[in-house]
Specification:
The protein is α+β, with helices and mostly antiparallel strands and 315 residues long. It has five helices and 14 strands.
């Protein structure tokens, strides 16, 4: 650098001492001796202009270089970088917090799903009705939940989307199962169809008409004449007629192999083909047919076999 300064001072002093009309000759010697010399003549004034322009160019170039260095240093300023890093860290923390909230909500939904599954599997009241278990995928395991701590927010977001989709699919299956189960429950004869006193249960007894021991295939419920008789479950009326033994009787088909009979009625209030709902009035207590007094003879027939109605009446 000092050598450049010395040469620059010498050039300035030389140009200052010479006259503008002085001429300088520049010789360019070629590599081959056979080629002629190239001569260039410059006046001192023109040489001063060339040097001045070159000086301005160098100064401008130095200014641009210095400006670029300042910009680079400012961009690489540790304080500025620390601020940017702090801002980015805050944004990442906010994203992680939001993802944690979503993860907790998914876990809450899964816990609720497991509770519903447990309730459906622990309910034994429907087993005699052909419903014994939840016929869909098993409950959620810890592997399904998956470890989601210590991973990048983007990866965690993808994981949460997959978990949410899986939970949605399981809940859709569970909803379908519960809808089917609701249909089964509506068809389950869980109510005693008349308010009264059970005077004769299901089993063998002495027939009041013949005096012989015979299976009594239903329940006799004593009640005042005209007491309402209701359908214990949804179904369709398949018989509504009068017979010598049962007197006025009604048969209701509830589906799933279950049929109920109501005998000795004083009135039949439904006809064959009617769709009846649980709790709907279908007849009234009487003493028609082979009867010793006002009562309802109630039977439950499963797959063509008469069974004990008490097994279906819920407390």
């Amino acid at each position: 650098m000092e050598w450049l300064r010395t040469q620059w001072r010498a050039l300035r002093m030389f140009l200052r001492d010479v006259d503008d009309e002085d001429t300088f000759t520049v010789l360019l010697v070629p590599d081959s001796p056979a080629q002629p010399l190239d001569r260039y003549q410059l006046r001192a004034g023109k040489l001063r202009k060339i040097v001045a322009r070159a000086t301005v160019g160098v100064v401008a170039l130095c200014f641009v270089v210095v400006l670029l260095m300042v910009l680079v240093l400012q961009r690489g300023n540790p304080v500025s970088l620390r601020k940017e890093n702090s801002l980015l860290a805050l944004q990442v923390a906010e994203h992680r917090t939001a993802l944690d909230v979503v993860s907790n909500e998914i876990d809450r939904v899964r816990d609720f799903e497991e509770s519903v599954r447990a309730l459906t599997l622990q309910d034994h009241s429907m087993r005699d009705f052909g419903v014994t278990a939840l016929d869909i995928d098993g409950p959620v395991t810890e592997e399904d939940r998956g470890p989601d701590d210590g991973i990048e927010p983007t990866e965690k977001a993808d994981l949460l989307v997959a978990r949410a989709n899986a939970a949605e699919a399981r809940l859709a299956e569970l909803a379908g199962y519960l809808q089917d189960r609701s249909s089964v429950l509506r068809s389950y004869p869980s109510l005693l169809p008349v308010e009264g006193w059970i005077t004769s249960g299901f089993g063998f007894r002495l027939n009041p008409w013949s005096g012989s021991r015979k299976l009594h295939a239903g329940l006799d419920v004593a009640a005042p004449h005209g007491t309402p008789v209701i359908a214990p479950a949804d179904g369709f009326v398949t018989l509504s007629s009068y017979g010598s033994g049962y007197g006025n009787e009604i048969l209701v088909d509830h589906g799933y192999g279950l049929v109920t009979r109501y005998a000795h009625l004083s009135q039949r209030l439904v006809r064959v083909g009617d769709h009846v709902l649980r709790g709907q009035l279908i007849g009234k207590v009487g003493s028609t047919g082979h009867s010793t007094g006002p009562h309802l003879h109630y039977e439950v027939i499963r797959d063509g076999v008469r069974v004990n109605p008490r097994s279906y009446i819920l407390p």
